[in-house]
């Protein structure tokens, strides 16, 4: 079953038949052809397999996870593929990443959602752990879903990432998080994550070493 679903996910990706002035990859999700412009000089401007897994889940579980008119934020949006798919599925989407990635992110989001979505997504800077209350005040920012794909890897900002999850997540917020396991850092982060959130694995692809998790804040009913 793992190999069959992985093959189906990977079939959603296609490449141009001709050389264009901008390098791009194509994807089929949510009934649309999505063209993503990438940059090979930084991790954040490349589409990683975890993003495809999350997009596939959002599309194929639209009844279980209905995004229509829901308020959604993606952290570490990178090229924007997940945010684009969530927008095409009817959500109000805020796609976020570091300032140096926003230009390419904005380009991809605009090119693939303009006049195609119920709600036009927005792109916003989010540096994990920095100015969270200023830029995303708890009193006015409420997200139904937090989306994240491959935000945990060998980088020095895992504390800030956990702080960001904690700040953005209300008692009824659902986190959908796809992660590729590479080193012990991932296992340690999952352990720390579970001190704040109830975590459930909803997809597991051993052939890709990727898991998809659903999480909600602990003790939410008491709160």
Number of beta-strand segments:
10
Uncertain spans: none
Spatial arrangement of strands, main beta sheet: 6-5-4-7-8-10-9
Number of helices: 7
| Helix content range | 25-40%
Q: CATH superfamily assignment?
A: Vaccinia Virus protein VP39
* CATH T-level topology: Rossmann fold
Determine Rg (CA atoms, Å): 17 Å
What is the mean pLDDT? 91
Order of helices and strands: HEEEHEHEHEHEHEHEE
% residues in beta strands: 25-35%
For the record, give the distance between the C-alpha atoms at the N and C termini, rounded to a whole number: 39 Å
CATH architecture: 3-Layer(aba) Sandwich
The outline comes out as globular
Structural class: alpha/beta
CATH top level class name: Alpha Beta
Task: Supply the number of structural domains.
Answer: 1
- Biggest sheet details: 7 strands, mixed
Pfam families: Methyltransf_16 (PF10294)
GO molecular function: methyltransferase activity
Protein name: MT21E methyltransferase
Keywords: Methyltransferase, S-adenosyl-L-methionine, Transferase
Structural write-up:
- Helix content is 30%, strand content 26%.
- It has 223 residues and is an alpha/beta fold.
- It has one domain (46-217): Rossmann fold (3-Layer(aba) Sandwich).
- The strands form two sheets. The chain has a seven-stranded mixed β-sheet with strand order 6-5-4-7-8-10-9, with helices on both faces. Strands 1-2-3 form a three-stranded antiparallel β-sheet.
- It starts with a helix and ends in a 6-residue tail after the last strand.
- The model has no long low-confidence stretch (mean pLDDT 91).
